[in-house]
Design brief:
Elements lengths: L2 E9 L8 E3 L3 E5 L14 E9 L6 H19 L10 E4 L23 H21 L9 H18 L3 H15 L4 H13 L6 H20 L8 H20 L4 H10 L4 H24 L1
Antiparallel strand pairs: 1-4, 1-5, 2-3, 3-4
Helix pairs in contact: 1-2, 1-3, 3-4, 3-7, 4-6, 4-7, 5-6, 7-9, 8-9
Length: 295
């Protein structure tokens, strides 16, 4: 039975030169040198391969869906938005063209070169992204975790907005992500977010709540068009970091959302619940810290 590989070129995902395979069905590899009068290669262009059997009709929409789901987690781990065009090519898998290999590409859009140290860092991040996706990909199919799917999806949209310097759109998407996890009511959202983030011990809850509440107010003014609002890129980078940490808390804490929110609310006044919350969130903060060290 013949096997084929369907290839998508993406920009912004940094993969190693040797294919990194995932469940022997998906592979990631740095895009080869473009073919032309002036050979060019860019370290942030990669090929994503999907293996398909000849007895099955390829479902390209399903492949793109899986790819977008993975890229959402890649964005969660790296903070990078990855462009994924609609076009794709297919090659039969043979001895001369094995799974995860492609001869050449005809186009190149911009060139970015990395040092060996940077390449190694991004190789670790891609491996970590694959493992994180394996651990938590059920959020895309489990109806009870729809709130997490929504939070990750809008977080990734915010990364895209930031890549185009669309600050107002990024703020709206970041806030939708937080609302999916914490609440759409401004006071509850800012209070719950500040308590969770303060558990890391780097900022106090009072200052965090003021920052987040201020951004909630700006978001409301943008949505309702009540007055002109200035949102700085620096504010959004900080908010993105906050949202990322809170998403990881909800991913890592193995409790239903309603139960976690209940513990969070009780921790405002009761020390026993605050200690319980600290124990629950410790692993998630360690994960974010280890992730930043790897980066």
């Amino acid at each position: 039975m013949d096997e084929w590989q369907v290839c998508f070129e993406v920009k912004g995902l940094i993969a190693p030169e040797k294919p990194l395979k995932f469940d022997d069905e998906i592979a990631f590899k740095k895009a080869p040198t473009s073919k032309g009068k002036i050979p060019l290669e860019s370290d942030d262009r990669s090929i994503v391969f999907f293996k398909v059997s000849s007895d099955k009709k390829p479902d390209f929409m399903e492949m793109r869906k899986k790819l977008q789901e993975f890229l959402s987690f890649y964005g969660l781990v790296t903070g990078n938005y990855v462009e994924c065009p609609n076009s794709h090519v297919a090659y039969q898998i043979t001895e001369s063209c094995p799974f995860g290999e492609i001869a050449h590409l005809s186009k190149v859009f911009g060139v970015r070169k990395l040092t060996d140290e940077q390449k190694e860092k991004h190789k670790r991040l891609l491996n970590y992204s694959v493992q994180t996706f394996k651990d938590f990909r059920s959020v895309f199919s489990d109806s009870s975790k729809r709130y997490l799917k929504n939070a990750i999806t809008y977080y990734y949209r915010a990364l895209k907005d930031l890549s185009y310097l669309s600050t107002e759109e990024a703020l709206i998407d970041e806030m939708i992500s937080l609302e999916s996890l914490l609440d759409s009511i401004r006071y509850r959202l800012s209070l719950r977010a500040s308590i969770l983030l303060s558990l890391e011990g780097k900022e106090n809850a009072y200052d965090l709540q003021k920052k987040i509440d201020n951004l909630c107010e700006k978001r409301n003014k943008i949505v309702h068009g009540s007055e002109a609002v200035s949102v700085t890129y620096e504010e959004l980078i900080e908010l993105t970091r906050y949202v990322n940490k809170i998403i990881f808390i909800f991913l890592k804490v193995n409790k239903p959302k309603k139960e976690l929110i209940s513990i969070l609310d009780k921790s405002v006044l009761e020390w026993d619940f605050r200690k319980m919350l600290m124990q629950l969130t410790q692993k998630s903060f360690q994960q974010v810290t280890n992730q930043s060290k790897k980066a």
